[in-house]
Amino acid sequence: MVQQGVSIKEVADFLRHRSLNTTVIYTKVNLPMLLEVTLPWPKVGAIA
């Protein structure tokens, strides 16, 4: 749902959670999606 643009609050309401903290327990990092936006780690001595 979140990947489709639904907010965490809306997900919590849909699941009838009383607390956002309960909903956050179910959130996970989408590693393939994260890899698409990360930059390569700089090599030692490469920073000017």
Could you tell me the strand content as a percent range? Answer: under 5%
| Share in helix | 40-55%
What value does the Rg take, in angstroms? Answer: 17 Å
Class from secondary-structure proportions = mainly alpha
Distance from N terminus to C terminus (CA atoms, Å) equals: 42 Å
State the total count of DSSP E strands: 0
Mean pLDDT: 87
- Major sheet: none
SSE ordering: HHH
Provide a count of the helices: 3
Which stretches of 5+ consecutive residues score pLDDT under 50?
none
Shape: elongated
Folded structure, characterized:
- With 48 residues, the chain is mostly helical.
- The protein has a domain at 2-29.
- 42% of the residues lie in helices and 0% in strands.
- It is built from 3 helices and no strands.
- It has helices spanning 8-15, 20-24, 31-37.
- It is elongated.
- 0% of the residues are buried.
Task: Detail the topology: elements first, then pairings.
Blueprint: H1 8-15, H2 20-24, H3 31-37
Concise description?
With 48 residues, the chain is mainly alpha-helical.
Structural key phrases:
48 residues, 0% strand, mainly alpha, single chain
